[in-house]
């Protein structure tokens, strides 16, 4: 529901936070807006931690080529089905073990041929992935075993982001030792701000353009939802 549900499907209660639905499309739109404002060539984009591809397909409205990457084989399989067929039937949890049938459908007119998907670990991305015009990583950092390994891959001679390219990061900094060892956290302990630690990692190679808070909603079942506020930061790689 996070990636493809309508506003009413994602939040069926009229008193619920409707502004928090459709986050993958919203973050992709913000990425496109940032690129357009800087006159970035809409050539190649990379969506790291793409899950089932909502933001990946949204980026393809402007970018000529978009690669979505995720560690989950299940997510990549679902995204590939959507790419091939334009729709996917799935089951969603209602209560206990009870489920209902729902359908994810891509917007009409979308050129699915611009999109490809690949399974890979964000902490050890293939070396041939270099020089993208824009890289998006939404709600990924605090679910990585080594956030610094991913951040270090963004720049350098074979960096993911080309000189002058755009980087958009979104993270609620939900550090959890089940995913990230405590000594690998970016801040979030001993009084250090996570965003300050993130800035320290990126400042030498990237210029911070803007930050903003964005809400998103995760449906757990028919009567339980997670409301999360993620911190979005937009960066431009130095050197052009």
Please tell me the total number of domains: 1
- What's the total count of β strands? 9
Helix proportion range: 10-25%
Alpha-carbon Rg, integer: 18 Å
Overall outline = globular
**Number of helical regions:** 6
- CATH C-level: Alpha Beta
Give the second-level CATH assignment, the architecture. 3-Layer(aba) Sandwich
The run of helices and strands is HHEHEHEEEEHEHEE
| Low-confidence runs | none
Secondary-structure map with pairings?
Elements: H1 7-10, H2 23-38, E1 44-48, H3 54-59, E2 65-70, H4 73-85, E3 87-95, E4 98-105, E5 115-119, E6 132-138, H5 147-152, E7 161-171, H6 194-202, E8 206-221, E9 224-237
Report on this structure:
The chain is globular. The mean pLDDT is 95. The strands form two sheets. A seven-stranded mixed beta sheet has the order 5-2-1-6-7-9-8. Strands 3-4 form a two-stranded antiparallel sheet. The protein is built from six helices and nine strands, in the order H-H-E-H-E-H-E-E-E-E-H-E-H-E-E. Helix 5 links the parallel strand 6 (132-138) and strand 7. It has helices spanning 7-10, 23-38, 54-59, 73-85, 147-152, 194-202; strands at 44-48, 65-70, 87-95, 98-105, 115-119, 132-138, 161-171, 206-221, 224-237.
């Amino acid at each position: 529901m996070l990636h493809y549900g309508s506003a009413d499907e994602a939040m069926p209660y009229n008193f619920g936070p409707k502004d928090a639905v459709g986050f993958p499309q919203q973050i992709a739109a913000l990425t496109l807006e940032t690129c357009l404002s800087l006159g970035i060539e809409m050539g190649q984009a990379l969506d790291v931690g793409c899950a089932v591809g909502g933001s990946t397909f949204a980026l393809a409205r402007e970018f000529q080529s978009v690669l979505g990457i995720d560690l989950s084989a299940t997510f990549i399989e679902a995204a590939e089905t959507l790419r091939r067929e334009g729709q996917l039937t799935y089951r969603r949890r209602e209560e206990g073990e009870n489920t209902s049938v729902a359908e994810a459908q891509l917007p009409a007119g979308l050129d699915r041929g611009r999109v490809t998907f690949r399974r890979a670990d964000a902490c050890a991305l293939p070396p041939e992935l270099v020089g993208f015009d824009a890289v998006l990583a939404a709600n990924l950092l605090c679910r990585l075993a080594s956030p610094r390994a991913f951040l270090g891959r963004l720049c350098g001679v074979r960096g993911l982001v080309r000189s002058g390219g755009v980087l958009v990061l979104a993270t609620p900094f939900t550090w959890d030792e089940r995913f990230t060892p405590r000594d690998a956290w970016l801040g979030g302990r001993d009084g250090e701000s996570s965003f300050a630690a993130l800035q320290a990692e990126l400042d030498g190679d990237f210029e911070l353009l803007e930050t903003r808070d964005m809400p998103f909603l995760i449906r757990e079942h028919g009567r339980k939802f997670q409301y999360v506020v993620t911190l979005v930061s937009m960066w431009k790689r130095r050197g052009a």
